[in-house]
Amino acid sequence: MQLIADSGSTKTDWRMLAADGSVSQARTVGFNPFYQTSEEISKELSLSLKPKVTEPITEIFFYGAGVSGPEKAAIIQAGLSAVFPEATHIEAHSDMLGAARALCGRDAGIACILGTGSNTCQVANGDIQYKVDTLGFWLGDEGSGGYLGKTLVQAYLHRELPEELKLKFEKRYPTVNRDTVLENAYQKPFPNRYFAGFSKFLFDNRTHPFAYQLAADAFRLFFDKYILKYPDYASYRVHLTGSVAFYYSDIIRRIAREKGVTIGVIMETPIAGLTLYHQPE
């Protein structure tokens, strides 16, 4: 049986592929080797995943946030091996490679993640060929949930929201003011997650001209700063995954046409595509 994982820092989607082709699924907390040891990972997996696995595991393919190189991959591999010692093959890769394989399979294309953050790569034959790097939440991540939320909150604090949006915003977020925003931005962990929480308000009000324009401008920046910098970008389909990509897909497709970019697949999460990628041919 194969075990496939798509992990963020908060949750992990698992798929179990049996020899007869049947697929079962599970969900656990997220695992990130930047913040967890292999012992902590194995302890959690023994409690939350192992009881749901009904057959011996032979292969494991793990894709996740924080798997940035061999050292971090080894933490994940050791944690998995302790729980599934019968597995003879264990791989751990970045969430970007997972998105690339889920979206493009073994074809050539440009793969994108638009969720709390943003990331892109050019892919062929199931491997990343080239990357235009983002600069993270504070200096980049254009088009992401964090960026959308940050831009919205800035507009509110600078008193730039139209009156009807301002009233809606204050009703929904009565405790938001300059002090609480700055505390979450500079003193508390994960400011990207904090600001990404506001992108839902933008989505719910996207038919308002101001909200639509704010989102559209963010996606224009995403295409200008990343997609249009790939060599021969017009020759490839651009595929996207992540909550922002999925829910704002109508606006993204409009901006893509404006930029001369061909959009391919847009999926909310990569796990279904990864399951197809790893199914025996």
From TrEMBL:
UniProt cross-references to InterPro entries, sorted A to Z: ATPase_NBD (IPR043129), Euk-type_GlcNAc_Kinase (IPR052519)
Gene3D superfamilies on file: 1.10.720.160, 3.30.420.40
UniProt keywords, alphabetically: Kinase, Transferase
CDD domains, per database record: ASKHA_NBD_PG1100-like
Keyword Ion transport belongs to the record: no
SUPFAM superfamilies: Actin-like ATPase domain
Molecular-function GO term, any one: kinase activity
Coiled coil: none
Name of the protein in its database record: N-acetylglucosamine kinase
